Write the structure tokens for this entry.
Amino acid sequence: MRMRRQDFEAAVATHGRKVYTLAVYLLANREEAEDVAQEVLIRLWRRGQEVLPEKIGPWLVRVTRNACIDAIRRRKGGSQVAIDADARGGFLEPAPGPERQAHASQLGGRILRALEVLSEPGRSVVILREIQGLSYQEISDALEIPMTSVRVTLHRGRRRLREELKEVHDHVAAC
Amino acid sequence: MSQRADHESCAKVLEMLDAWIDGDLDDAEATAVKKHVDQCESCQAEQKLAETVVAELRALPEFDVPERVVKTVRHKTRATLAEGLRALFGVFVSRPLPTLAAAAAVALMIVVLFPSPRPTEPQYTDQEVARAVAETRLALAYVGSIAQRAELQVKTRVLDKGPAVQTVRGVQRALDFIGEAGIAAADQAATPQTQMKGS
């Protein structure tokens, strides 16, 4: 059942940013993320009335993640979309100060690349927790996994990221 | 402490390092990890890297939905609203003749089902009554065919079919019921009139 127009606009204003940001980091591709955000918001319009108002946030996260996983599968099944380092760098805002800027250009760029190494649900959990600031409870509700699993998955994901980034960090620290 | 014992305790600490940084360990575990990290350069370096990675992740920006996406979504959701309205009401709005026929049939049924309580002398010939019954049957059959067409159109036009199709089926069943009742009442009304006229 379709949502009322005013409820739909309110949900887009509240959760739109969350949807698009998750898609950008999961797909590492803004164009695909725009397609996914569009698809998810239209789905919200069509199905939103079936979701309790307080569950719309978790529902949107779940639907967005599933849409991104489908997009990645399609990418793997069909022609691979190449994501170069410049495209990744485009996601990063320049950090203040020359030292931090230099660091961000190396470590920040590598973090985005390292995120792609993480498997699901680790990648989603790291993005939702560390980049988007969701609580363990919110992540648990959205991904429908227990809170203890959220914690364990997050910590494993961060360890995996460290393994990927150790070399760059050591190099930056030595400079 | 032996090298092997050191290695084992480092491995255990590394397992708990992220939970320790996030404050998720109980007091005893947190104290044990802190004691080890304070004495172990390798684990201190790992702690520093872990904190840097978390800080870098948290410094990554969030993004507003691009305006063009919002515009497209608004356009498409308005289109679906218009389609929905057309599917639900357009079938009646665009076909005034069936609507009038349906209204006439319903009016006729009301007259047949709820006759005047005042007894009156029969005023019609057998032929007139037979013709009225036949016309009532025809009108009711027409109402049935309109309802079937409406159901088919709503099925094809409304993507979210569940509740809409159920509603149309409900209307169809109600019309079938009214039709059967109307025909039975018309038959019943015709019989005594004929007998009275004939007697």
Remarks:
- Chain A touches chain B through 44 residues (CB under 8 Å).
